[in-house]
Automatic annotation (TrEMBL):
Family statement drawn from the similarity comment of this UniProt entry: Belongs to the GASA family.
Signal peptide residue numbers: 1-29
Pfam families the record matches: GASA (PF02704)
Protein name in UniProt: Protein RSI-1
Keywords: Signal
């Protein structure tokens, strides 16, 4: 009987690990976009600015590189590290 309990516990442990790995992969890929998703995401991201043309240009450039656009029309850049950390030569944020 003790051997049956051990094999059951081992099975539960293995299944738990598989589920954790699956959810970790989902969470990591949550912000990943396909290149064709960039324009609609950037259209929303740039919707509140009066400088739409440069915003769209840089947003789409950043999205193409990072495959990520932060949620909302401003801020929230921490949700996309690549987008957040890409800087101009002067050290200012490249992505809107």
């Amino acid at each position: 009987m003790a051997g049956g309990r051990r094999s059951h516990a081992a099975l539960v442990l293995v299944l738990s690990l598989v589920i954790m790995i699956a959810f970790a992969d989902l969470a990591q890929g949550y912000n990943k976009l396909r290149p064709q998703d960039c324009k609609p995401k950037c259209t929303y991201r740039c919707s509140a600015t009066s400088h739409k043309k440069p915003c769209m240009f840089f947003c789409q450039k950043c999205c193409a590189k990072c495959l990520c656009v932060p949620n909302g029309v401003y801020g929230n850049k921490q949700s996309c590290a690549c987008y957040n950390n890409w800087k101009t030569q002067q050290g200012k944020p490249k992505c809107p």
